Amino acid sequence: MTSLSYEAAGVDYGVIDPLKIAAQEAAKSTAGNLTRHGFRELEESRGESAYVVDTGSLLIASITECLGTKILITDEVYRATGKSHYAAIAQDTLAMAINDLVTVGATPVSAHAYWAAGGNEWFADARRANDLVQGWKAACDYCGVAWGGGETPNLSGVVVDGRIDLAASCVGIVASRERLTLGKNLAIGDAIVLLGSSGIHSNGVSLARTLAASLPGGYATPIEDGRTFGEALLDPTVLYSTVTEAIFKAGILPKYSANVTGHGWRKLMRHAGDFSYDIHSIPPVPAVLKFICSAGKLDVREAYSTLNMGAGFAIFTAPEDAPRVVAIAESLGVTALEAGRVEAGPKRLRIKPLDIEFAGSELTVRA
Amino acid sequence: MTSLSYEAAGVDYGVIDPLKIAAQEAAKSTAGNLTRHGFRELEESRGESAYVVDTGSLLIASITECLGTKILITDEVYRATGKSHYAAIAQDTLAMAINDLVTVGATPVSAHAYWAAGGNEWFADARRANDLVQGWKAACDYCGVAWGGGETPNLSGVVVDGRIDLAASCVGIVASRERLTLGKNLAIGDAIVLLGSSGIHSNGVSLARTLAASLPGGYATPIEDGRTFGEALLDPTVLYSTVTEAIFKAGILPKYSANVTGHGWRKLMRHAGDFSYDIHSIPPVPAVLKFICSAGKLDVREAYSTLNMGAGFAIFTAPEDAPRVVAIAESLGVTALEAGRVEAGPKRLRIKPLDIEFAGSELTVRA
To answer: Which family does the entry's similarity section mention (chains A, B) (predicted)?
Structure first.
C-alpha cells in the first residue's frame, strides 16, 4: 500500500479552520460580558487549551472536549471479539478534557458527561453501558474530580444508529496566580520534560482506522507486543493531572505545558512566543504506534507531525526542576524523560536524534 | 391519523433510565473527591438541574446540555426553503444549558460550544456556519456570558453525514448562599409564576417531526398565525437568565425554579418535596403548539404532560413577590403570569381551568 497521510485519512483542517477562526473571533468579542458580574477573563487564556475567568477571589478554568472517532474502534473490537473496552473509552473521553485543562495550571474539580446515542438500543446493552459508567467514575476518582452530572440523550437521526458521541466538560480551579501557566513564564534555557503516552491516545485515530481497513486481518492483525492491533489501539489515554498536581505540591511551578494531541509533536511549539525547541532525547515509541508507522509506511517526519510517538504531555520547567519532575512522574507510574531545551527563536522544533525539523508555520492553533 | 404519543414518537424513557440511574449513583459516589481540594459539593444539587460546588469562597454551578433533535427541523427547513435558522438553533442550544443553570440561583458566567459535525462539509457552508457563530455570540451577549471556547470536531461515522450534534456547557456563580434555590425554601402558600415560552422550544421535537412526516404538506403546512409549521417550530427558546438576574437585583429571592422542558408541565412537580401544585390560570398557547395538539390529535392531558403549552419556566416565590416578578419579566419582554399556588401534599399537579391532574408518580427525574 501507499503511505497514509493525515488528510487522506479524512481530517482536513483547511475546511474547518475558517469556521474555527470566525468562532474564535466571535468568542473573543464576548469577553466584556464578564464585567457585568464584576469578573474578567484572562485574555491570555484565549488560544490556550482552557479558558480562565478571574472572579477576583478565584481563577476558574473550564473546557469542553470531545473524544473523536476512537469510539468506532471500540465498537468494532466489541463486535468482532466480544471484548468491551467501554471503560477505557470513558477514560479517553475524560482525558481529552482533563489533560487540556491542566495545561493552564488548573486543578480539575468537576466534570460533566455528554453521551449522545444514535438510538435507545445503545443504552439497552447493559454491559457496555455499565462499563462506560464505571470507567467514567474510575477516571474521576483517579483525578480527584467530582462527576457532577451529564446528558444521555437519544439523538436518533443526528448520531449514527448504533453509535454514541462522547464528550466531557470539566471545571477547574487555578489554586494561585503564580500557578497559572498561560505562557508568560517560558524562557530560553527551560527544560522540556516529556511524559510518556500509553499508545495512540485519541489522536491519529482516522489514520489508524484507514490502516485497519487496508489490512487483510484488520484490527485482528497481531503487532509486536503479541496483542492485536485493535486491542493495542484501545489502551486508554494517560491521565496527567496526578502528575501536574504532585509537581505543584512539591513546590515546583512549571513554566508552560502542552497536551500532545492533534498535530503530534508539532504541539510542542504551542506556546505563542518565538522560541526554538531542541529535542535531544526521545522516548520509546509504543508498539502500536511503531506498527502504524511501519504498516502505514509513514515516514518519520509524518509520524512525529501526527502521532504522539510516546510523548503524551510536555512540561516546560526550569532546568534545575526537571530531574524532580521526572522523578515525581515516575513515582506515580507515568514514564518521563528530560528531552530537550527551549532555545532562542526562530520558532521551530528540532528533533535532533531523528534529524527532523518543523517550522513554526507548520502549527496553526490560534486565530 | 391516530393520536401521537411521546413514546410512539421515539422517546422511550424506560430504556434510558437504568443507565441514567447507574450513572447518577456512580456520579454521587465521586463527591468525596472534592475533599482532596478542600471543597465540597452541595449534595442537594444532585437531582437538581445544575451541579453546585462550594469552594468556601464561591459557589460554582456547572452543566452540560444538548440541543436534541431540533437541528433536524432546522436542516429540513433550510433544505426546502433556503432559509437559515442556524442563529436561532444556536440560541436554542445555549438556552438548554443556561435555563437549567439558572434554576439553582446561578448567574451564568461562561459557556463552551460543542459542535460535532458528520463531516467537513458542514463547516464548508459558510452561510449556516456563520449564522451558527453569530447566533451563539448574540445569545451569549444577551445573557452576559463569556464564550470561552469549544470544539468543532469532524465526527464522520459517529454523527450522521451532513448533520451536526450541538451541545453547550455552562459555568455559573451563585452570588450568595441566600440565593441558592436547591429546594429548602419552598413552602405552602408560595406563588407559581410562569414565564412565557416562544413556541415548542426544544422539547416535544420528536412528536413534531413525526407529525410533520404525516402531513401532506409537511413542514410547509400553514398554521393559524400565517406562517408554516416549520418556520414556527424554529422560533428560538426564550433565554430566561435576564429575568432571573433582574429579579435578584430587585431584592427578590425566589424559593425554587423549574425549567419546563421534557415532561412538559409535569416538570412543575420537579421539587423533591411532597407538595401539591394548584394552577388557577394558564398562559396562552403558542400557535405552533395549538397546531401540534389539533393536527396530532393530542388530548389536553397528553399535551400538558409533554409540551410547554406556553410556559417555558416556572418561578416559585413568596406570594407578595409574585406581582413584582411578573412585572420585571414583562419589562424585559418576557410574558409572565401568576398562575398558581403551592399547597400541602400529596404530590400532584392540578391544572384547574382544564380539569386535569397529574400524580407525583408521573414524573421521575431522580434516581
So the answer is: Belongs to the AIR synthase family.
Residues 6+ apart with CB under 8 A from B200: B208, B233, B235, B286, B288, B289, B292, B307, B308
| Residue B301: how many other CB atoms lie within 10 Å | 14
Cβ atoms of residues A16 and B123 within 8 Å: yes
Largest CA distance in chain A: 61
Query: Is the separation of the CB atoms in A200 and A307 below 8 Å?
Result: yes
Domains belonging to chain A, first-starting first, are 31-179 (3.30.1330.10), 191-362 (3.90.650.10)
CB contact under 8 A, B121 and A15: yes
Please write the tens of the pLDDT for every residue from B213-239: 999 999 999 999 999 999 999 999 999
**How crowded is residue B216: how many other Cβ atoms within 10 Å of its Cβ?**
6
For residue B53, what are the β-bridge partners? Answer: B41, B60
Asked whether the beta carbons of residue B22 and residue A109 sit closer than 8 angstroms, the reply is: no
Q: What is the DSSP string of A67-131?
A: --THHHHHHHHHHHH----HHHHHHHHHHHHHHHHGGGTPEEEEEEEEEEESSTHHHH-HHHHHH
Which one of B71, B132, B169 would you mutate to disrupt binding with A, by most A Cβ within 10 Å of its Cβ? B169
Best probe of the B interface among A33, A86, A203, by most B CBs < 10 A, is A33
Assign B11 a pLDDT band (cuts: 50, 70, 90): low
Q: Is residue B9 very low, low, confident or very high in pLDDT (cuts 50, 70, 90)?
A: low
Confidence of residue B367 (pLDDT cuts 50, 70, 90): very low
Beta bridge partners of A342: A277
Distances from the Cα of A41 to the Cα of A60, B150, B168, B350, angstroms: 9, 16, 19, 46
For chain A, give the mean pLDDT: 94
- Closest C-alpha to B347, from B300, B277, B263, B244: B277
